[in-house]
Amino acid sequence: MAATNMQEQYNEYISKFKQNASQEVQDKMRKAINELERSDDGKGIRVGEKAPNFTLPDATGKGVTLEDVLKNGPVILTFYRGGWCPYCNMELRAYQQLMEDIESAGAELIAVSPQTPDASLSTKEKNELDYFVLSDEENKVADEYKLVYKLPPYLVDIYKEKGLDLEKANDSDSWTLPVSATYIIKQDGTIAYEYTKADYKDRVEPSEVVEKLKSL
Predict the structure, then answer these.
(1) Any signal peptide, and if so, which residues (predicted)?
(2) How far apart are CA 40 and CA 194, in angstroms?
(3) Average pLDDT in the 132-147 region?
(4) What domains does the chain contain, in order, with CATH numbers?
């Protein structure tokens, strides 16, 4: 199975960002990542641990329960920041390219963000996604997976200057997000694989996750 072009897209986007963003903005974004890496926040749960069960609404508001999905086979569970995040959209589209492989391995894919169901619907439609896109408002489930962190005020200012209205997208003024994380959950609910990074630009190539899934 060939790798997706996600990393290539990331590199192109990062290169453009470095050309267009001021050094001050770049320094502050790097500082925020460094602070998060040094903190105890967003470390995530580990291989061998039991995945917390949850029921979350899909893009149409219908509840989806992890335990119910696991009855049909293993699950790739990925937490993303939101449809406003270009890296997240590239990752979500890369997984869409691999849906046939995921389904032929008898698995399902669930993507979770703190966005409202309406914002999730926009993300699903914009990226033409054929898998579960769920809304974890207030990051309650992400918190059970130990992924939540609070954006520092200087980063909130940058987001607002860029016109990123997280308060509207998430219907919350908490300015908290999940760390980007991907898990493979076995049918018995155990975490078989995890990839969790404080740096939102550092994500596992989706085809690697599918290879791990096939080797279960």
Answers:
(1) none
(2) 17
(3) 97
(4) 20-214 (3.40.30.10)
